[in-house]
Backbone:
């Protein structure tokens, strides 16, 4: 099992550019989520999904889109990057059950100039 | 909305000593879970320990244990016999049921722990 994989590991964008952060898991988990981690802020939930075709917003969804066409993949799209989106992004997955621990990917460090 | 507070931004401990990291949370929920995650310099998030709110017994995982005080909404992490590999950011997290049968995880801002040789 590869677990949760994220690509790319690092990315630099210019303001206004768009891009997609990829996330995939091979554990057949129903629940997938995206977090951003900023210095001194901990991890904040951007979007999450409880299964293919179902997504919902988290604490900080503005400027991001998600879709879930398969159980395995949960891409995060930045439509028009802004310097405020400079952050480290983590994808996580788990079974859909209260109390289970989430498996995290290795993270993507994004810089927007 | 739930809030999770870690009041110690940074801490240090001598190797082989014991250290306690604090966490408090605010919620009106009765059914929830609490977690401690470790993030070493590699950036990987690693689960350290988990506590179910309806269990009075404190969770223990080898050198890691918690002191869960439900009435006080406190969830501290004790690391015994600290090792150099324990150097990391530690995040306290709260999990509750959200809509559509899903759940949400709220993190504290973290405590940076340094283990000194």
Residues:
């Amino acid at each position: 099992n590869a677990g949760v994989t994220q690509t790319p590991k690092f990315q630099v964008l210019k303001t206004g550019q768009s891009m997609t952060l990829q996330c995939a898991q091979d554990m057949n988990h129903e629940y997938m989520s995206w977090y951003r981690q900023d210095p001194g802020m901990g991890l904040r939930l951007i979007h999450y999904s409880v299964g293919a075709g179902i997504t919902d917003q988290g604490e900080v969804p503005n400027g991001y889109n998600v879709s879930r066409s398969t159980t395995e993949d949960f891409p995060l799209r930045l439509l028009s990057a802004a310097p405020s989106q400079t952050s480290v992004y983590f994808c996580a997955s788990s079974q859909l059950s209260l109390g289970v621990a989430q498996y995290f990917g290795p993270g993507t460090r994004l810089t927007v100039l | 909305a739930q809030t999770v507070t870690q009041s110690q931004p940074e801490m240090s401990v001598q190797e082989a000593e014991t250290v306690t990291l604090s966490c408090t949370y605010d919620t009106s929920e009765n059914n929830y879970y609490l977690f401690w995650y470790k993030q070493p310099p590699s950036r990987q998030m690693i689960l350290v320990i988990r506590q179910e709110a309806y269990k009075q017994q404190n969770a223990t995982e080898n050198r890691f244990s918690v002191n869960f005080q439900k009435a006080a909404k406190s969830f501290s992490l004790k690391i015994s016999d600290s090792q150099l590999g324990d150097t990391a950011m530690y995040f306290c997290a709260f999990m509750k049921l959200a809509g559509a049968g899903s759940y949400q995880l709220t993190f504290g801002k973290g405590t940076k722990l340094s283990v000194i040789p």
Observations:
- Chain B touches chain A at residues 4, 9, 31-33, 35, 43-45, 47, 50, 52, 91, 95-110 (CB under 8 Å).
- The first strand of chain B starts at residue 3 and ends at 5.
- The radius of gyration of chain B is 14 Å.
- The mean pLDDT of chain B is 93.
